[in-house]
Amino acid sequence: MASVNGIISASKLRLRHWRNVRDSKHLFYVAGCHTRSLAYLPSTCNNRVQKRCASSAKVLLSQDRHHIPKSDTPPTAAGGRRRPSASLVRTLKQTRLAAEDFVDLTGQITKTVRFSAAPEQPGFSLRYWRPGGRGYASFPPDSHGFFYWHLEPDAPPLSGQVRFRTTTSSDPATFPSGCDLQLPDGGTWNISLFEIARRSQYSVLRAHLLSEKLVTAKVLDTALTISAQRGASIIHPGAGSLLIWKFGQIFPVDLGHVAVSFWVIGNSAGERLHLQRLFSVGVRESGGTRIVNYMPFTGQALVQFERSTLPEHKGTRTVVLRIVKVIALTKPEASEDVSERPEPQEGGLVMTRTVGRQWTPWSLDVDQPLPGSGSPGPSAKALTILFDNEALQ
């Protein structure tokens, strides 16, 4: 216990420079991806797996009800509403989980959690978002399992997040066959490291992560400082942010959107990447000179960044964007101006139109300076991180 207290004291010193962010509500946020499309990413259970888990749960729960600690089931108040009760989290390490770490969130609108690394500190409340982020809903049926720290095997520490693994009983041996708690829109319920670093209510969680050595003070400092300029505002990775860290990492795009925005992260850096007109066509307004964006296709696709192997890019660090899968594709009626736009093809590269109105694969040489500036632009700076990460691996 003395060693834990020493770690907590040290963590408090490291965290002294963190200032309270304008955030008085104890809210739960979702980060790491565009939540409605996360079901297609490897780190998230897809619909088929979710259905299998739900089906298995119904069978196994009838056999394993005695494994669910009654003490963690909140009492029922007047009107049938369950009163929230605080849960003490002892560990976020999968290898240390025990039956007493089992938590039941089922039917609760808010859940207060406290951490054993700093039991004297107040806890914070977790909530479950309604579809589209419209307020809160009760946690769904069978939302019982274990809180844990999730980090992809080859991912930078900055991508870490707290998740909740639903299981069929309080036996930690059921953890591998469980599923991460999902949101109604297909996203994964989580608290991202970026939210943990920035928000005042997560101070106890920061202390706990440091005490279990799941993150370092340096990683928290880096997460705190990553930002980008958007107009007159400064933005940070947060709720709904999509994180990319390697070539070949599949992520979703909406074919009907003019722009795609996400964050490219490394071990000690992060940059926002904002790509415009990947799937649109500029159309001149009738009788005018203004160019407007027209979307010749709607739907969704899965894409990935790759090192270019095209002959014209030999000897350069050039990135291209490949379409891995077309999930849905619809063409709006008519348009003489956009009929020439190549249709997105599975296995093909995303195409763009040159000044000479020729269609060619979209590409970006990260070492090519912007005209008249002498230095690479923000997009090149962001994609350079992928090459840096590759070199470290």
What do you see in this structure?
- By secondary structure, the chain is α+β, with helices and mostly antiparallel strands.
- The protein folds into two domains: 2-224, no CATH class; 244-392, no CATH class.
- 18% of the residues lie in helices and 26% in strands.
- It has helices spanning 2-14, 47-64, 193-198, 203-211, 217-225, 378-392; strands spanning 87-89, 103-104, 110-115, 124-129, 136-137, 144-150, 161-166, 179-180, 190-192, 228-230, 233-235, 243-244, 251-254, 259-265, 270-276, 281-284, 291-294, 298-307, 318-330, 351-353, 359-361, 363-365.
- The strands form seven sheets. Strands 2, 6, 7, 8 and 9 form a five-stranded antiparallel beta sheet that branches. The chain has a four-stranded mixed beta sheet with strand order 1-3-4-5. It has a four-stranded antiparallel beta sheet with strand order 13-18-19-22.
- A hairpin with a 6-residue loop joins strand 4 (124-129) and strand 5.
- Helix 1 (2-14) crosses helix 4.
- The longest helix is centred in the first third of the chain and has 18 residues, at 47-64.
- The two termini are 37 Å apart.
- Residues 64-85 are annotated as: Disordered.
Helix-strand pattern:
HHEEEEEEEEEHHHEEEEEEEEEEEEEH
The structural domain count equals 2
Number of helices: 6
The tally of beta strands, per DSSP, is 22
CA-to-CA gap between the ends? Answer: 37 Å
State the helicity in percent bands: 10-25%
Task: Determine the mean pLDDT.
Answer: 80
Shape descriptor: elongated
Give the radius of gyration.
24 Å
Q: Major sheet: size, sense and barrel closure?
A: 5 strands, antiparallel
> What ranges have pLDDT less than 50 throughout 5 or more consecutive residues?
1-44, 46-80
Overall structural class, as computed from helix and strand content, comes to alpha+beta
Proportion of residues in β-strands: 25-35%
